[in-house]
Design brief:
mainly alpha; two-stranded antiparallel sheet
Length: 447
């Protein structure tokens, strides 16, 4: 925080907000400018802004997990095996490291995340509406949006639309679905804390329809699983979880039956659930339902088996696919765990994933704590902790079939979830410390 006359500037809140704005636009930098340098520059500016705030304060709280985060940065940067170090090669580990370092400096008052959460919700809604716009007004969409993109990106979007996938105002349906999933998480977590979906039902419907039009099966499945996981973890006693499980079963029956009727009877229903129907048909016929990912996964495992300790180098997997899996097209693994193993080996993978897993387990513990009501916490903190757990859960699940560690819009939401949960850790520590001081003061007064 900084004062300049009568002007009050909260640098930390500003940094969190800028980071969220970057997240909401990250999918367009390559599509419009074809520049990774811009993304590295933006994150570097945000890091400098936050770092200057910490230097001014003269105090930075570092815990054991933070040391693991810093080691993860070294593991990522150390996994570069190339001798040329072009922008395309270094961008991945550099952006990863910048994101992790930023997560150390965005911790503080939960009010710092107020505008960030609103941006995530309304950004997701705008992207959902853009999906509907691309579906209902494809010609206008082409002239307004696609004409401003690089020709190769515009052509790829047109191909996906011809297959029934509608990306809206991003360069890929996966990014659009990611923004929508985050916005759904904001609404669902608010409902869980308030225990009543009294607000936001219309917004939820818009988001859900937008998500269905992207035809992203994994996003839909993992979003549902993440919501259920958060709902169950927000319970301090076993009998509460059992009651919630029964609620989930009955609610599922009540919701699924009308949706199935909609999907079978109406034309719009068949459009919305096109890929889901195709998945069940292919599965029944014994065909591959992974979009040929199984061959890529096997290839990644083979590379890891050949280079088990240090891998083949961060970002080098894409090139190995050409001539083995594809003819000309470079591809990622669509599984961050296999890609980390193949590119960074066991050593790099452990250093990178260990702080993620520890943070996830800590978030589960804190979620149960705030649900117990043994200590009263504000709605803001309860909601923020649930959203952090939701974001982490979705990221780790989607990592099984997608690229959230390498697609920066996904990764930044993950970084924001780290900032939230460790902000609570600092808040909890200060609250405990202040309570002890108050007890000591009372004892001293009564002596």
């Amino acid at each position: 925080m900084r004062y300049n006359g009568d002007i009050y500037i909260n640098l930390k809140a500003m940094g969190v907000t800028f980071l969220t704005l970057y997240m909401l636009t990250a999918s367009l930098y390559i599509a419009i400018f074809n520049s990774l340098s811009i993304q590295m520059a933006i994150l570097s500016i945000i890091l400098v802004l936050l770092l200057s705030n910490e230097i001014r304060k003269g105090f930075l709280y570092i815990n054991k997990t933070d040391i693991l985060f810093i080691l993860a940065c070294f593991a990522a940067l150390g996994s570069l095996h190339s001798s040329t170090f072009t922008t395309g090669e270094i961008a991945g580990p550099v952006i990863f490291s910048l994101g992790v370092l930023i997560s150390l400096f965005i911790r503080g008052d939960i009010e710092n995340y107020k505008y960030s959460i609103k941006l995530i919700k309304w950004g997701g809604i705008i992207y959902a509406l853009s999906v509907m716009f691309s579906y209902f007004f494809s010609n206008l969409y082409n002239s307004i949006f696609l004409s401003n993109l690089r020709p190769i990106i515009a052509e790829r979007i047109l191909q996906s639309m011809n297959q029934g996938y509608y990306p809206g105002f991003t360069s890929d349906v996966a990014f659009t679905a990611g923004y929508i999933v985050s916005a759904i998480g904001v609404i669902i977590c608010g409902w869980i804390v308030k225990e009543s979906p009294s607000k936001g039902i219309l917004l939820f419907i818009i988001l859900f329809l937008g998500l269905l039009l992207t035809q992203k099966r994994a996003h839909l499945l993992f979003m549902i699983l993440s919501c259920l996981f958060v709902y169950l973890q927000y319970s301090s006693f076993i009998h509460e979880k059992v009651k919630k499980i029964f609620k989930i079963i009955f609610s599922t029956i009540f919701i699924v039956v009308p949706i199935l009727l909609l999907a079978i009877i109406t034309e719009i229903g068949q459009t919305l659930f096109l890929r889901i129907f195709e998945t069940f048909q292919n599965f029944s016929a014994g065909q591959d339902i992974t979009s040929n990912r199984s061959a890529i996964w096997k290839h990644a495992w083979d590379l890891f088996s050949q280079n088990p300790f240090y891998g083949i180098g961060w970002g080098n997997f894409r090139e190995t696919v050409v001539g083995t899996i594809t003819v000309h097209t470079e591809m990622t693994t669509h599984n961050i765990y296999l890609q980390l193993l193949s590119e960074t080996g066991i050593i790099g993978t452990v250093f990178i994933l260990l702080p993620f897993i520890i943070t996830f387990l800590y978030t589960i513990k804190i979620t149960r704590l705030v649900s117990s009501n043994r200590i009263q916490y504000s709605y803001s903190w309860k909601f923020a902790i649930l959203f952090s757990l939701y974001s982490q859960t979705f990221f780790l699940l989607y990592g099984l079939t997608g690229n959230p560690l390498y697609d920066y819009s996904f990764f930044i939401v993950y970084i924001l979830s780290f900032g939230i949960i460790y902000s609570f850790r600092i808040y909890k520590y200060k609250k405990t410390f202040d309570s002890k001081i108050e007890i000591d003061r009372n004892i001293f007064t009564n002596m």
